[in-house]
Amino acid sequence: MGDQLCISADSHVVESAEFFEPLAEMFGERAPRVVIDDPAKGPQLSLGDGRLGLTIAGFFQQNVDFTSPEARALLAKGYELARPGCYDVAERLKDQDLDGLDAEVIYPSVIFNVYQVEDLDILKATFSLYNDWAADYCKQFPARLFPLASVQLYDLDEAIKEMERAKAMGHVGLSIPASAPPNRRYSDPWYDKFWAAAQDLDMSLNMHIFTGATANHGMPFAQGTSALSFTGAAFTVADILQSGVCERFPRIKFVMTEFEAGWVGITLKRLDWAYIRGGGERTFGLPMKPSEYWRRNFWVTFEDDPLGIMTKDFIGVDTMIWGNDYPHGDSVFPHSQQVLSEILSDCTPEERWKMTVKNAVELYNLPFKLEGPDQARINHVPVPEVKSWRNSLPLATVGSATPMT
Q1: What torsion do the CA atoms of 328, 334, 339, 340 make, to the nearest 10 degrees?
Q2: 108 in helix, strand or coil?
Q3: Tens digits of residue pLDDT in 94-138
Q4: Residue 112 lies in a domain
Q5: If we measure between CA atoms, which residue out of 102, 125, 77 comes closest to residue 11?
Q6: Which of 30, 69, 342, 377 is the most buried (most CB within 10 A)?
Q7: Cβ proximity of 6 and 355 under 8 Å
Q8: Is residue 196 a part of any domain in this protein?
Q9: Nearest to 173, CA basis, from 149, 144, 199
Q10: Strand, helix or coil at 120?
Q11: Cα-flanking dihedrals φ and ψ of residue 56, to 5°?
């Protein structure tokens, strides 16, 4: 690493099929496990109750033109598409160098849909197993890989114990469902002891796309897990902001991840308007507008969202953190520096520094000394030129991923 830095606040590990074997030993056919239900779709996660999760290939298809027939054919390959860096940490650091990165905050992948499992024992066992596995993966290079633990929120006492255990293992925050169960929304004071514990432990609460407690992030349409997923996220944000959670817990930290950022501005504007028209503190019982709580207690990640960047002055540059989504199909790897140069072209050096370095360091208490805007990486090693970061990515890498051995 040099004097300049660039940190991805949304990167991933991809749990292997073997990862789930201990769960099968514990719970038999009820256990989450990787199966091939449709050979054309390749391996998928089975939730153990007849439902299937995301395709495994989608977690590895970066740099693919998804409009091509080749992309569809690649689904059957599944884990064969994995780059060596997905499982060999030394190789992963080479990919960081290729992409101009110095550190990554690490989310899970395959277990996203496990948040929908209703068996509490299976939830606890799966997340405990993952937290051990991810900590072991990241501890090999603890100055460049920073894991987030996963917890269930049905047994709060056990969730708090797991949060304490995770922090002791080196996890820098927690993944929780991006949408709560419909019968117990996050506005319910029942969660207060968990919010209090997260605040006291200074552990962020991260809500990643696809991690809803119900399908489609609680929305009554299939696009709730993809193109319109931000609608479920917006509901979660509104529920927390308007219910006083952030007033009762002023140091709590929520992170909305991989929903992009363009939806945040209009959501906050409408919430503020409702607050003002409703009589403000007299009606809502809150001394601050929703947007003010947002700027104090919320963060949002973006990947390649120029529309979100246009709203930065309203939602707050201090609340925005960038991630490359390595190694997923939505990832901008290995073109991150080109993407950043393009979408942040109208930003000041200080704004770029905040979104690619400072905000992540402060949010997760990462071990980097903050030295000011000159610390932000502007350019890195050359990579193939692309005029746009989506749909124009070269097809040269399609089908050329190195198979796992």
Answers
A1: 100
A2: coil
A3: 999 999 999 999 999 999 999 999 999 999 999 999 999 999 999
A4: yes
A5: 102
A6: 377
A7: no
A8: yes
A9: 149
A10: helix
A11: -65, -40
Instruction: Identify the CATH number of the domain in which residue 188 sits.
Output: 3.20.20.140
Tokens encoding 212: 């809803």
DSSP letters spanning 84-105? GGGT-HHHHHHHHHHHT-SEEE
Q: Which residue has the higher pLDDT, 196 or 398?
A: 196
> At residue 124, what are phi and psi to the nearest 5 degrees?
-60, -45
pLDDT band at 230 (very low <50, low <70, confident <90, very high): very high
Cα–Cα distances (Å) from 277 to 268, 270, 273, 280, 375, in that order, read 14, 10, 6, 7, 43
Is the residue at 326 inside a domain? yes
Total number of domains in the chain: 1
H or E element in which residue 350 lies: helix 349-353
Say what the pTM is.
Answer: 0.93
Within 10 Å of residue 81's Cβ, how many Cβ atoms? Answer: 29
Helix (H) or strand (E) holding 145: strand 145-147
Please determine, for residue 387, whether its predicted confidence score (pLDDT) is greater than 50: no
Phi-psi region of 78 (alpha: psi -120 to 50; beta: other; left: phi over 0): left
* Residue 25 CA: distances (Å) to CA of 19, 30, 33, 48, 274: 12, 10, 11, 13, 52
CB 271 within 8 A of CB 235: no
Report long-range pairs for 40-45 (Cβ below 8 Å, ≥24 apart).
Answer: 40/75, 40/76, 41/75, 41/76, 42/75, 42/76, 42/77, 42/78, 43/17, 43/78, 43/79, 45/110, 45/111, 45/113, 45/114
**Cβ atoms 335, 383 nearer than 8 A:** yes
- DSSP for 249-281, please give it: -TT--EEEESS-SHHHHHHHHHHHHHHHHTTTH
Amino acid at 205: L
Q: Which residues contact 276 (CB under 8 A, 6 or more apart)?
A: 289
CA–CA dist 91, 146 (Å, integer): 16
What is the domain range of residue 118?
7-29+84-371
CB 20 within 8 A of CB 336: no
In a domain, 381, yes or no: no
- Supply 401's token pair: 């991923």
